[in-house]
Amino acid sequence: MAQVTIRINGFAYTVGCEDGQEPHLELMAADIEQRITSIKAIGGQSGEARLLMLAALLLADELHDTRKAAASTPAAGSEKPSKAAAEKQARLRRLAARAEEIAADLSDA
């Protein structure tokens, strides 16, 4: 298992991930950092936990919208989800589970 140190809102976090997933984890951290920057621009500085919670809510909202859109959009010419759609849904489930793991790790720290 690989270890990656990411920086979010000026704080360093060391997170474990599967070997080869380091760049993906760094991109996810950059996405969270961008959301936190946006939140701070709108509402000013808040506590670290509040900023992370708001970023998590924004991500959860997008995930919810994506799942809703995926569930309401059948594959062309078929009522069953296409293989690609099923793979996307599986990936979203894995990402959501991993995000929950990371959030749990952060709350334990």
Report on this structure.
This protein has 109 residues and is of the alpha+beta class. The chain has one domain. It is 67% helix and 13% strand. The protein has 3 helices and 2 strands. Helix 1 (22-43) packs across helix 2 and helix 2 runs antiparallel to helix 3 (83-108). The protein is globular, with a radius of gyration of 16 Å. The two termini are 20 Å apart. The mean pLDDT is 83.
Summarize the topology:
Elements (H helix, E strand, L loop, with lengths): L1 E7 L2 E7 L4 H22 L4 H25 L10 H26 L1
Antiparallel strand pairs: 1-2
Helix pairs in contact: 1-2, 2-3
Structural class by secondary-structure content: alpha+beta
Q: How many domains in all? A: 1
Number of helices: 3
Radius of gyration: 16 Å
Low-confidence stretches: none
Instruction: Please indicate the percent range of residues in DSSP E strands (runs of 2 or more).
Output: 5-15%
Global outline: globular
Gap between N and C termini: 20 Å
Q: Looking across the biggest beta sheet, what order are the strands in?
A: 1-2
Instruction: Describe the sheet with the most strands.
Output: 2 strands, antiparallel
Helix content: 55-70%
**Topology, number of strands:** 2
Order of helices and strands: EEHHH
**Overall average residue pLDDT:** 83
